[in-house]
Design brief:
Strands 8-9-10-3-11-12 form a six-stranded mixed beta sheet, with helices on both faces. The protein has nine helices and twelve strands. The mean pLDDT is about 95. It is an alpha/beta fold and about 260 residues long. It is about 35% helix and about 25% strand. The structure holds adenosine-5'-diphosphate and magnesium ion. The site of magnesium ion has 3 residues, from helix 1. Belongs to the ABC transporter superfamily.
Length: about 260
């Protein structure tokens, strides 16, 4: 894996004291997280600890209650004027989100479009990429996710693992600076998990900056540069993957890891 802990690689994500409440429920209670270019960070933690909410704050799918998040130096979702934050327009947000790829537990492919259209449409519509360029890039990405030859398939003709690999290719087609994965293998039959993780390994090896919410501890151990353990809306522990997974310091990390085995 890469060694991104040097000061030369720029910060791609800076989350500063992020709070999020739903009514009286405080879901995020001051999350701080920095991710450098090329780094792979796995976000672990019990169900309900706020992992998805935090990922969704990063691309402003969720409006945080306070705090701020910068992606590649840009404040996400807001303009700062005279010390106050003003929410961006939908159009401005869309421009920011083009640079942040997101892959969910459910594949969310467009059911009525074939694979090639699923992958190539957004770059044409949202980036103004010429159609033939976008198609060529889509074919290249299909090869990368080991689905060469399935250009004309419709989502219903593919397995869950294949659909998820198309979803990854679709996100990559926008040339994101950052990829967010929210339990990308949790909805898959066990025998299909490996093929999706392999694509993610490849991406990591290619230097993509990634935040991955996952329960796949062996993936975290092998691929992540850093592991962050969240519980009840705070970061309980973070550090080099093997250090945290093999020698957890915090009692809550130890309890979580025990439950996972
Ligand atoms: P995780 O991904 O770690 O399982 P989530 O971020 O999905 O956790 O959820 C954290 C908490 O926030 C949970 O208690 C969940 O019920 C609550 N929550 C998430 N989204 C909403 C919402 N839109 N409205 C109300 N509560 C929510
Ligand atoms: Mg979740």
């Amino acid at each position: 894996m890469s060694a991104p802990e040097n000061t030369l690689s720029p910060l791609i994500v800076e989350a500063i004291d992020v709070h999020k409440s739903f009514g009286v429920l405080d879901v995020l209670k001051g999350i701080n997280l920095s991710v450098r270019k090329g780094e792979v960070v796995c976000l672990l933690g019990p169900s309900g600890s706020g992992k998805s909410t935090f990922l969704r704050c990063i691309n402003h799918l969720e409006r945080m209650t306070s705090g701020r998040i910068l992606v590649d130096g840009q404040l996400i979702g807001y303009h700062e004027r005279g010390g106050a934050l003003h929410e961006m327009s939908g159009k401005e947000l869309a421009v920011q989100r083009r640079d942040i790829g997101m892959v969910f537990q459910r594949f969310n492919l467009f059911a009525h479009q074939d694979v090639l259209t699923n992958i190539s449409q957004a770059p044409v519509l949202n980036r103004g990429q010429p159609r033939n360029e976008a198609l060529a890039r889509a074919r290249q990405l299909l090869k990368m996710v080991d689905l060469e030859g399935r250009e004309g398939a419709y989502p219903y003709q593919l397995s869950g693992g294949q659909q998820q690999r198309v979803a990854i290719a679709r996100a990559l087609a926008m040339n994101p600076k950052l990829m967010l994965f929210d339990e990308p293998t949790s909805a898959l039959d066990p025998e299909l998990v490996g093929e999706v993780l392999n694509v993610m390994r490849k991406l990591a090896a290619d230097g993509m900056t990634m935040i991955v919410v996952t329960h796949e501890l062996s993936f975290a151990r092998d691929v992540a540069d850093r592991v962050v353990l969240m519980d009840q809306g705070i970061v309980v522990e973070e550090g080099p993957a093997r250090e945290v997974l093999d020698h957890p310091k915090h009692e809550r990390t130890q309890a979580f890891l025990r439950r996972m085995h």
